[in-house]
Amino acid sequence: AHVLNHRLSLATSTASRGRQNHQQKNNATLLVDLYQFRGDDQLPFTATDVFPEAGRRTILKQFHRFLAHEEGTRLGEDIEELHDMRVASRRMRAAFRVFGKAIGKPLIAPYQHQLQWIAWELGKVRDLDVFLAYLREYRGACLPENRQGLGALIQDRESARRGARTALLAAIDSEQFSNFKQSFAAFLDEELPPLFALRDGHKTVAQGAAKDLRKRFQAVIDYDERVQVSPSPETFHELRIAIKRFRYSAEFFRDIYEGTLDPVIAECRQMQDALGEMHDVDVHRSYLTGFAISLRNGVQSSREQRAAIDALLQSESSRRAEQQRKFERVWGEWEQGDRRRHYVNNFSRIVGIGHPLPSTATMDACSPAGPALDNRPQKER
Prior knowledge:
By secondary structure, the chain is mostly helical. Helix content is 77%, strand content 0%. It has two domains: 51-202, Alpha solenoid (CHAD domain); 204-381, CHAD domain (Alpha solenoid), CATH 1.40.20. The chain has 15 helices and no strands.
């Protein structure tokens, strides 16, 4: 009996390994197909499709783009390849937030963690790319006496970038990343079973889109009072994230609205760009202040180096003030109750439905008087 059990155990183990090897080969084949795929237009969804399946297609579309820029990121000849790969990772994470509950949060949680990890590595390099590009542009336009003094700063940031890029290459060449891609490709490969897809109360894209857009728009509007009363850098940073999440959701669903969301998307992009530059300045100033202190304490620092950093800090302050004015111009228009009501009503007017969807939420913040509304439809950051 002992020998028989041992043989059965060996046979089961061998069969299991065979299935695993077969699955790995299938996953590898899927991944090759995804790398070669360029048909984003083949993944549309309509207002009457089920919400979870629309989520799968949305995530798959961004995964294609993510993979399309992996080799360019690895080569490092064009910094925009890394940027585009990072944007695709951000959009996938945004899609997880929009569609995650409908698809099943436990199912996507492992992929969320893996994407967060690789997005962090991409972000470290991208932030330094942006800072270095700004420093080089600034050096070319600043006073001649300050140009040479910026050399040590640029060398320091170039060294930091080399370290960040080394860490990124180790990540995207790792077995962990390879396993993630193959597993994620297999997860996204097939349409969701009908019964599983319909388990969320038979929610359609039209219903899910309107609800999600109202919720994320309200999350932005909730910053009204905080923006008006001496907002801190942290407040602006959090608002930028809220705007970005609303904008990504609007862009996921823009096709079923046939252009009616384009104005609000454009305004979000303007505010997000301005707030993004303000955040960049806040991060840069924190680093530059520390760098200036180290120069003052350093034996080999020169007066011209310290003067160059001081001038750069002043320039950064002016840049931040200019971007804040740009943001405030657009935000001031958003404070108008009529405009907000118009946007919210548009969220429920889905093309092809034929009638407005019934409202499931109120938007008190959209009206100065606070009544419920009748809701019966540049470079990426």
